[in-house]
Amino acid sequence: MEMVSTVQNTDVKQSLQKVNERLLEKNPAESLLFDVVLIATDSQQQSSRIISSTSHYGLEVGRFCFSSREDLVETLVVNNVQLFLSTDRDEALQVSQKGVLSALLGRQEAPSESLRVMLCGDAIVRPDCDPVPASRGAAQSFSARLGEMRGRFGVSGSPLSIVLVTSSGGSKSCGVALQTLRSRGLSVDEAYCLAGAPRGPILSLLRPHFLLGDGVIDLED
Amino acid sequence: MVKMSLDPVQVKELNVSPSPNGDSRASWEEEEVEEEEEDRLGIATKTKPPKPENAVTVAVSSRVLFRTELEQRVFEQKGVEEYLRYQIEHENEPFAPGPAFPFVKALETVNARLRELYPQSEELFDIVLVTYNHAHVGIRLINTINHHNLFIERFCMTGGSSPIGYLKAWQTNLYLSADADKVREALAEGIAAATMFMTEKLTEVSESQLRVAFDGDAVLFSDESERIFKAHGLDKFFQHEQDNEDTLLDHGPLKGFLEALGKLQKKFYAKGQRLDCPIRTYLVTARSAASSGIRALKTLRAWGLEIDEALFLAGAPKGPMLEKIRPHIYFDDQMFHVEGAAEMGTVAAHVPYGVAQKHNQPQKPGARK
Fold it and tell me: Which of A83, A181, B91, B225 is spaced 20 to 30 Å from B65 by Cα?
């Protein structure tokens, strides 16, 4: 069971749900699914509001968890969270430094057809330059699971899309990243090699739901 | 074969072995070590691609840069999954050069000369591979790029979605593709674009000088005169051109690219290399020098664009003239001329713009302006 924890952002949750639906369509006994845990670190007063708005949007949230900021990492570990998503950059960075893989949520202006997961290839090619080495192991195992999940679907019409972006290296680096990911069982759908070009224009077209493997960077960069 | 000079700029006395662009790459490990060395020593042993806003960006699709007919057939006959499986199976077999290949090589030759004269400048050609191929084909494409010693460090493999947005993001100055629909989309977005086709016959082209040839109407200029010709015939056309001799023609889709070439040419002239300039441009038009051609020349002059050679054919077929010029690429809005050029071994690219697109049949030779 994949475990993902999210705060806010209904499109991500809907896209995650869609992946689960399609997986179950293919195999009703499928166990490799996204499990969404909603963690609220605000005060208790928010709790009933969160629960009611979640059902309002028809979102199947598996669990609710209320945690204080200080206990956040422990809560994540206790719940065996494999990926923590947040809109708060500092929060995500703090969590990843403690070894739990985290990513920033992208801003979605329009609903998308698939869950778009972006991987930053630079950290894959040069692990020594990884800004958050603590969560590197978590990143590798998550990407292997993601690869397994992606493999359940065909090339076209998949509810899950894997996008690779390399920012600084040239085409050879990107090739190394593609090879490395493939050896971990993760096949990439789209690949963009920027070789030093500004990320902004390309990222705004790619509209990922979240970005992995870059430590934690600003998706609006 | 002109080898691109990639000698490192030696800043300190260090034992840095230059990375010549000569040996073909075999293993991935080699590359990784090289790049790590580059980082450790802090000196770029390879040249870095320029920022998009400074460069003349040429985006090419994989089907025009390389020959992929066999793989296309697999896709058409057996579907996408089989196509990708085939590609992965043949990953270590590089593709053969396609119709845009000599053009891209010539761009790199110009870059080498520009770097010699202006080592700090980013005003260079930047070649980006923009393909809606799936990333599964990525490794084979990268292997092919390495095999042919192409300096293509940037690419977009969109996995099926439209590449047009990315063209704008890269500030593309010219887009070359095998897909006419994509080319039309790009033109509609104001990006110079043309469709390329593979031909069996290819005449040899220069390895030291980039030669680009343009048709006039509906390529460099708007299609207004063609409209008159098509609606009212040759005589009316002549009359109209004479009456409007001093009125500038409106610009066409490739004007901007000619302008970009002109800017680079001036950089060579500034260093006293006018005679030896590695860029040469040609106008190859069916207009005639004595009459309708004057308006074309006046327009170019008013735009501040220098074209090296203007060839007014007065209706004669373009093929033989192009065969003499040997451009790396020739842009025309009429398939009739594109096919005629290809028959004689010239790489011609179709610009699907203007009124000529409604008339798809080949024209009678001689009944032209």
Answer: A181
